Here is the input.
Amino acid sequence: MKIAFVGKGGSGKTTLSSLFIRHLAASGAPVIAVDADINQHLGAALGLEEADAAALPALGEHLPLIKDHLRGSNPRNSSAGTMIKTTPPGEGSRLLRVQEDNPVYDACARPVELDGGAVRLMVTGPFTDADLGVACYHSKTGAVELCLNHLVDGPDEYVVVDMTAGSDSFASGMFTRFDMTFLVAEPTRKGVSVHRQYKEYARDYGVELKVVGNKVQGQDDIDFLRAEVGDDLLVTVGQSDWVRAMEKGRPPRFELLEEPHHEALRRLRSAADATYARRDWERYTRQMVHFHLKNARSWGNERTGADLAAQVDPGFVLREGVTAPA
Ligand SMILES: Nc1ncnc2c1ncn2[C@@H]1O[C@H](COP(=O)(O)OP(=O)(O)O)[C@@H](O)[C@H]1O
Ligand SMILES: [Mg+2]
Here is the structure.
């Protein structure tokens, strides 16, 4: 299951994704945690010391390796140089599984021990000014998108991505790559402003979107969120002393997290798991091709000097059970 946490800076994306990751790990589920947020804090929120978090390998710096691995023997991608972040898999491409060892995880993922077991953590690396503009080919999240487009995940295994709701994710199609998107919103006008924009994009592409109200203090806050986002509101959570203690560098055992927060996390998981029955690999593949052609036209062809539409394998559908070459 591919799950994104999006929202405004400061809304609590990193906090809630880290709690959700801890919840999954505590249940024994395999998890890949991905930090694709502008402010790279997921490692720290998962309990890494500052020096260890800073030493994590950046996905963005391993793009050539990632592309070379994924293209495998796909004749439509005979060189990594013409692969862009939206280049779709086809016959001969190597696909990724959540539970396996492969050169991409070897280079880019690091284990993080949590109560209940280790998760794999991957980070995009810190964003620079150039990443925040419109220069698509600089996109720090490009490596994440490539990986998601080559990932065949089943139920009960999870990829959780902490990311921003930036325009780059709408232009590239990144926002369509998830089984479930949790939009974290504080009960303020600013907090819910992202929802309106996200919902429009989401509606056009059949994206499953639910709002998680955060830093909610009482009924008035809940009423406000309900009035603003309607049925999209899935759960609300309040301030957590457990989180405060963790941020002081004194992380209590995860089971000591406040019970209402545990209950909220169970509801997030149920909502995410429930989408599996509606998963549609053909649509997933169609959407990646759609955004690839769009990016090819708007900058990719010019940038690479190649006709990137030729990378599309018309007969290929990404799905569970496809066998990939070694
Ligand atoms: N439910 C919560 N309880 C306590 N502190 C919280 C909660 N949600 C967020 N915070 C605090 O608010 C700040 C911003 O949260 P963060 O998760 O870093 O936001 P974002 O990733 O969206 O920028 C952090 O200091 C975090 O610890
Ligand atoms: Mg964050």
